Each structure stands twice: as structure tokens, then as C-alpha cells.
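Cross-posted from the bioinformatics board.
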Amino acid sequence: MFSPARSWREYPQRYRLEAAKCSKCSKILYPPRLVCPECGGRDFTEETLPRDGKVVTYTVIRVPPAGFTEQTPLPLALVELTNGVRLMVQIGDIEDPETLEIGMPVRLEFRRISWDGEAGVIFYGHKAVKA
Amino acid sequence: MRDVAVIGVGMTSFGELWETPLRSLWAEAALAALDDAGIDKVDLITIGCMSSGLFTGQEHLASLLADELGMAGVPATRVESACASGGLAVRAAFAEVAAGLSDTVLVTGVEKMTDVDGADATYALGTAADSEWEGFHGVTFPGLYAMLARVHMQKYGTTREQLAQVAVKNHANGLLNPHAQYHLKIDVDGVLNSTAVADPLNLFDCSPVTDGAAALVLTTVERAREIAGGKPVVVITGSGMATDTVTLANRGELAELGAVKLAGERAYAMAGRKPEDINLVEVHDCFTIAEIMATEALGFFAPGQGGPAVEQGLTSLHGRIPVNTSGGLKSKGHPVGATGVAQIVEITTQLRGQAGQRQVEGAKIGMAQNMGGSGGSSVVHILEVI
């Protein structure tokens, strides 16, 4: 499903939260692209994402897809960081999902996201936790 | 551009059809449409199918299926746009006939979803989202629509009960459709108490996993008139398609389905029609919230008024604008690649006055809205009887 090669090439974004800032209009793209969807610019500088943000919307997945059956219920949120970039992340360390709400302040932390059986690849990335 | 008519419709019953392989499902619908049109030769076959690879381990469908019908040699093409694959297959065929590249086209949609278990089906459908940046974190389709529902509920005050009423209405319509997967009357409490899938959506807010196929025959209006011999002819007067961001994180407005709005505007412009002209509409109710948002995006109700409209019965079979007379994806079933074609089977059947107990009296103009992913693509068609 998520191969080692794919995992490896995504390290800069997943591990170090590397994004690209458009040299023309300053829009920040995460993950980076070859062309800015805002202005068509093609020159970028590297920019690290801030770790603080807030919940834009959320859900708690009760019927998981293959690969996530051990992690159910699985709280997920669309988070907007302080620089306006949005990303989809799991919510970690939440004991009662009923306490989640739109606008809740969160902080990104480096965590294990999923694993491919006992001997398979372990995938890491960022989860959001209550700030 | 040449005017294009629908001269044949056909579909299988929708359901968990464990004994029937994909190719037989497909052929059954295709033969029904050809027989309905009274022809046995076509210039092209288009096939809407989202993921025969993940669901059944079979690709190279277009040639495989042309051969299944004894039509090896005929050009055939598979069209994929997730759950909007069927609608896009219709649009591809419409363009061929309109442009004069083909005179007569067999349009089909098919999906065989029950050969895999629930977790694998959820995964396969999930590939219509952004695999690398959404699927990686465990997102499912109910999860994405649940997130849209939360925003809609917060922004407009749409209620949990209003969502449930979409399912109740569509199941009531499905009772009158012999092809529907479920002939099951449900009530609001039943929806509210059904198993939680992705908060705030429950099992009865979600369309099911379904096997099924649907087919149409399209040709020029001139030929349609010859074949019809004085009987009414159903014409496709508008076709619109639009894309939007697949990744929810890249979408600015989450309380509106932008691709549906754009595709609708394009179809209205081509047909020279406006929302008030439409007598009935099939919308893509993959989840209850999707129907509410689609009816707003297509201009039938102002933003935020889709929920109250269902509550007031405006979208019921005998309401101001009947929505999903077929039972919709919710009750009729949702074999993803077939859905967009099956919607036009329903509209054509209604415009011909052949919808039996669920007939909308005097229906002259109908619309079908098909959607891929969490609104990353949408196809809208307007059909009129002349």
C-alpha cells in the first residue's frame, strides 16, 4: 500500500515539514509543487512549516480503511497552521473525542502514523495534539 | 454541434450480486439498452468504471467488454473520474456524437465491489482522495464528508435530523424502484441510532457498497426521430463538467461544492435553462450531506437552505423539486462507475413517462448530477423530452 520507496521520498515533507514558498506571490505550498496554483510562479524557496495551528474541521473514524484497523476510533482533523497552510492529520493523545471542536488550538508532534504488520515498514509523520 | 438523443436505457438490479461476474453484469445492462433502442450495432463503446483493478483485479476493461458483447473491433474506451466515472462516460459519448465522430454510441457504467471485504472496499474507494496526503493518515470517504458536514452544520445550522431526513426520503423513493438495492422503509430515529461510521455520519447516512451496471444508447436526434416513429424523444440539451481540488486541505470554501456549482452553471448555459425550469433531479447522494450541498450548488436552494428544504418536503416525490426519485445512491445503491449512467437511466425513464409508481407527473426537463471524490469532480447533464 505505502511502499518503502514512497515513504523514503516523502521524508523531507513528513519528517521535517518542508514546504515551498513562491518567490513571486509568497504563497506557501505543502507539499511543494512545480508551479504555484495562485500566480503560476515557478521559483520557490524552502520554508519550514510552523507547528502551531487550529482545527478547521474534524471527524472520528469508526470504520477504518485497511491498515488502520488497530487504531480505531481514529480522530482526524483538517488543521490550519499559523501561516495559513492547511493539512490533514490524525489527532493524538485525545482520550475523549467528544472534547474535539472546531477552532481548537493544536500543535504538530512527530509520531508513528501506521505500520505494515510486525516485520513491515513503520510510517512516521506528524499528528496534532491539543495545544 | 449535432443534437444528441438517448434512444436506449438499461440497467441490472443493484445489490450484492455475488454470483455474477463484472463482465456479465455489464453485458446484461448493455444488452438491455441495445434492445430498448432496437439496434445491434454501435460506432463506439464508452465505459465508466472507477477501480476494477482494486475491486476485481481486472484492468483493460474496454477491450475485454467489447469482446464480451461479440463486438471486438469496435472502438471502446474506459473513462475514470472516481465516482463520477459514469457521468463522464456519458459526456465523452455525448461529445463524440455531437462532434460527428460517431453516430451511435453505447454508453455504459459498471462496478463490481463485493469481491473484496469491507476494509479493502473502504481502501479502494479511499484512493479517490489524495492517497499521499490524506489516505496516508487513514482518511476514509465517510470521514471526508463528515468533515464537510461539520462545517456546513456550523456555518448554516444544518441539523443531524435534516441529514437523516435525506436518507428517509430516498429510502421511501427506493421502495418504488424495482432495481433498488434496498426496499427498506426507515425513519429518522433509525438513522440517528444506526452504527457510527465517521462522526457525525452514521451507517444510514452512507450509500452502500454495490454491484451493478447501467447503459444508454446515444445517437443523433435525426436518427432518434426515425427510430421513435412519432413517440417522444429524450434529448441531452446540456452537459457540464468541472474539477476542484481533490485534497480538502487545498480547498478554500468547505461549505460549498465548487465543482458541482461550476458544472451546473455550464450545463444550464448550454441548455439555456435555469434551476426553476427543472422538473426533477438525480443528485449524487453518496452521503446525506452531499445531497443537501448538491441541491444548493445547483441553485435549487440558497446556500444553507438545503437542510430546511428536505425538512419541509420540498425535495420529496411530490414536492417542489423531486430529488432522487430513483432512491438515489442511498437506497438504489452505488456501484460507483455505474452510478452516473444509472442516474440518466432514471431521468430518461421519467421523461418517457415510464417510471410507474414513482412517476413525476408532467416531467419535461430533468437533470443528473454525478460527483467524484469529496467533490473533486462533477458532471451535470440536462435532458428534455421533445
